[in-house]
Amino acid sequence: MDNIIRRQQVILFILILCLMFGSAYIRACTIFMGISEGHVLAGNNEDFIDPNTYIWFLSAEEDKFGRVYVGFNTVLPQGGMNEKGLFFDCASVPARIGRYYNKKEVYKGSLMERAMENCSTVDEVIALFDIYDRSYMTYQILFADKNGNSVIIETDSIMLK
User: What is the pTM of this model?
Assistant: First the structure.
């Protein structure tokens, strides 16, 4: 009997929250990675005002891995995965000047794209991003690999799982 009352209280609480916040417009991307019984799953959602979403496939080339991207008509990928099982997605964060500003070389191009073209593991991604200045970043990137490793990269932080 106590379980039934408790369940009803939880359902009522959730309904009240839905009524309170159901009409509010909230934009927040979600990115996750989980491991269970040797299986690695990663996923995301893109909360943005543009309903025109795209998915595009890029075939492997001599020195680049094949990859699939999702995003909007800005042509910049918001997330994706390469043929080696390396996944990424981005989420906005407030802009700030990183501690490496003007101390490291600025990469001419997209580091995300280079990582997806050439990296198979989170360790390779970390080594790549550690070389270059990231002070321009107004987002964080979660990378996860098929081995269950993950990292979040920001302007001045690299947080390994």
Answer: 0.78
